[in-house]
Design brief:
The protein has 14 helices and 24 strands. By secondary structure, it is α/β, with parallel strands linked by helices.
């Protein structure tokens, strides 16, 4: 393979024009060197009206800030902590979409990309680069963008799975800034209890999907005595890495990608990223593969574990907002809820604390005004809090209300019961489960 030709970040972004839509690789692998160069162009008044699209990003996000109003406009597919305040202030925005559908937005021309800005590994002997810790929807972006800028970074692990020919890149930039890492706190006693309640539903040989944050890591600590678990997920972090290294997660019973860990993006410690590098036991895949419900369902006993901000008494699950305030996004929750239900022996679990840190109940008579329904009531199955676990599958509205009240905080149950009686009428109190 011939020697790579690099240009500076400033020269690379000088080729971007105003009024374009820009894709960024996401999570831990944001090309910050290119963003900084774009900010310098903006500060000189050389560019305006750029729209940014991506999964959630880690690190600084100047493209969402008020100072660049009219120059940059963030329209992410998921809202992370670094842009949340700016989204809710109107300086940035959220584009609602199931993560499995994000590549289709590009490929079908719903979003016509001017440029894709991504970080990649060094190429192998065949001229193929890896997108490392964040494949997400970047392959579709690379395939459809007019200009593709790759930041070759020695800290991007060479991950097997979906690779990209280096010939796809219009320009290459060299930068060795370390990837963003995340440190997860030790789980609280409450989180451990929820984790135990979830772990009791996980069977040996199950194929797991879990989200991001303290609760998935708390669950991971409760699975150390399980056997032959598999992993097919959007993402994983340090908690699941510990189970992989112990051999608890080994993928032996998976029907597809047997023996392999399958994911689309990662966020964790450098240990997680190092584990990924040239490890043929891990496949980093396009999100249309990891999140396709029909591919998910090809494994047996898929156990999908996600969270919620609120659940109403009929089983409607809000996970993207707090009232009208956008908190995160639709993400891949419904992708995996559907996939788990289609899987032979599969389970979909929604797990959360019965109350917020401020003491507000999360099992509610009706969702807050403006709250989004991420998982419809017809797709709600197992619901878990620190007070237990209930299965809503095949249950009527009144049955669901009784079941959900049974795992609400004890101090909230009487009021919830009164609200259920008002909603469903006198028969509600006359039947038992």
């Amino acid at each position: 393979m011939k020697e790579l030709c690099y240009i500076s970040a400033d020269e690379a972004v000088s080729h971007l024009r105003s009024h374009g839509h820009i894709h960024l690789s996401s999570v831990a692998s944001v090309p910050h060197v290119l963003i900084e160069a774009l900010c310098r162009r903006a500060d000189r008044g050389e560019i305006e009206d750029l729209h940014f699209h991506h999964f959630h990003t880690e690190g600084p996000a100047p493209y969402s800030e008020a100072r660049y109003e009219g120059i940059f406009f963030e329209q992410g597919f998921f809202v992370g902590p670094n842009v949340r305040a700016n989204v809710n202030a109107g300086y940035a925005d959220y584009l609602p979409v199931h993560l499995s559908d994000t590549p289709r937005l590009y490929r079908r021309g719903h979003i016509k990309l001017h440029a894709a800005l991504v970080q990649v590994s060094f190429p192998d002997e065949n001229g193929m680069v890896s997108l490392g810790t964040s494949v997400d929807c970047s392959i579709a972006a690379i395939d459809t963008a007019e200009i593709v800028i790759g930041v070759v970074n020695k800290n991007v692990p060479y991950a097997y799975g979906d690779l990209v020919p280096v010939s796809k890149f219009t320009y290459l930039v060299r930068d060795d800034t370390p990837l963003v890492t995340a440190v997860y706190k030790d789980p609280s006693e409450l989180e451990k209890t929820i984790g135990k309640n979830c772990a009791a539903l996980v069977e040996d040989g199950a194929c797991l999907q879990m989200g991001i944050g303290a609760l998935p890591n708390a669950l991971a600590t409760q699975l150390s005595n399980h056997k032959d678990l598999g992993l097919h997920t959007e993402m994983f972090a340090d908690g699941l890495l510990a189970l992989i290294k112990k051999g608890v997660i080994n993928g032996r019973r998976k029907d597809i990608d047997t023996g392999k860990v399958v994911a689309s993006f990662l966020l964790g410690s450098h240990e997680v990223y190092s584990f990924l590098d040239h490890n043929d036991a891990v496949l980093m895949k396009d999100i249309t593969y990891t999140n396709d419900p029909y591919i998910i369902a090809r494994n047996k006993k898929v156990t999908a574990i996600n969270s919620a901000t609120e659940v109403d008494l009929t089983g409607q699950i809000c996970a993207d907002s707090i009232g009208t305030r956008i908190f995160s996004g639709t993400g891949g929750q419904l992708d995996f809820v559907k996939g788990a239900f289609l899987s032979e022996g599969g389970k979909s679990i929604t797990a959360f604390a019965s109350r917020t840190n401020k003491g507000k109940n999360k099992i509610v008579p009706t969702l807050a005004e403006g709250a989004g329904v991420v998982t419809p009531r017809a797709d709600a199955h197992w619901i878990v809090t620190e007070w237990g676990a209930v299965d809503l599958t095949g249950k009527s509205l009144q049955e669901r209300a009784k079941l959900l009240i049974s795992i609400a905080h004890p101090d909230d149950r009487n009021r919830l019961d009164e609200e259920a009686f008002k909603r469903f009428g006198p028969h509600y109190h006359k039947f038992s489960l």
